[in-house]
Amino acid sequence: MKKLLITLLLLLSISTLALFASGSKESKSDNGKETITMATNAEWPPLEFVDDKGKVVGYEVELTEALSTVTNYNWKVVNVAWDGIFAGMANGAYDGLASGVSVTEERKQAMIFSNPILTEAQAIIVNSGTTNPPTNLDELVGKKVGVLMGSIGDLYLQDSGKDINIKQYDNIAFSIEDMLNNNLDAVVVDSIIAGEFVLKNENYKAKLIKSGEADSVGTPIAMCFPKGDTEIVEIVNKALAELEANGTIATLKAKYGIL
Questions:
Q1: Fewer CB near the last or first residue (10 Å), C or N of the chain?
Q2: Which fold would CATH assign to domain 122-217?
Q3: Cβ neighbours around 149 below 10 Å, total
Q4: Is the pTM of this model over 0.85?
Q5: From CA 184, how far away is CA 143, in angstroms rounded?
Q6: Closest Cα to residue 201, out of 257, 252, 145?
Q7: SS3 state at 4
Q8: Class of the CATH-defined domain 21-118+221-255
């Protein structure tokens, strides 16, 4: 009986280990490739968003999935909340991020980036009837400006040293609604998001305008991975070059209206 019990415990242990292994980065899919899981916050059209069928789509989502065609890995994207997305990567919940992450010197200290997949500026959005709307950073001085908490726009305004009344939001749509209710003078947001999510959104495009840019130099956007994971970054950079050369990137940019 004792031997039988030991045998059963060993079988249970093996089964448990196999169960945990099946969900790990090293697990094999039906085609024998390992799977790389990338997290995204699907609230940033046209980079990543949920379509009317409930599917996570967008330029960066499809670009990530296209890595499967030019690497020896399967690449998949999972939708997670923005406020915990960096901590999740650090804790190993997923392998990397494909979520409109701007490359900053501060972030380089904690993670490693691929080559840029886009470069964008920080757009200033105002209500369409605004008199003398701000067109640059200096003209935001003294105004109440909405930003996405922790975004590059938020960090840029904070680091500018300008006397700007910054109001942070955990969803950019909330800042837009607050501005429409005259609680903000402007919203600063990534130019890609401004163009697609705000100016082309049926709920907003007749009510808002882009009045200018808060920064004069664009900010690169890239996929990112835990610090030290240089091997996977080299694979991604090589794959991105192949996708550029074979026209995949150009096709995706055209599909999602990205210049």
A1: N
A2: D-Maltodextrin-Binding Protein; domain 2 (3.40.190)
A3: 15
A4: no
A5: 8
A6: 257
A7: helix
A8: alpha beta
Cβ count near 180 (within 10 Å): 15
Condensed to tens digits (0 to 9), the pLDDT of residues 65-109 reads 999 999 999 999 999 999 999 999 999 999 999 999 999 999 999
Q: Where are the domains of the chain?
A: 21-118+221-255, 122-217
Q: Distance between CA 69 and CA 73 in Å, rounded?
A: 9
For the residues of 136-199, what is the DSSP string, one character each?
Answer: SSGGGTTSEEEEETTSHHHHHHHHT----EEEEESSHHHHHHHHHTTS-SEEEEEHHHIIIIIT
User: Is-same-fold flag (21-118+221-255; 122-217)?
Assistant: yes
Identify the band that residue 258 occupies on the pLDDT scale cut at 50, 70 and 90: confident
Q: What is the three-class DSSP state of 250?
A: helix
Q: What are phi and psi of 124, to 5 degrees?
A: -100, 120
Q: Are 88 and 95 in contact (CB under 8 A)?
A: no
Nearest to 58 by CA among 70, 50, 66: 50
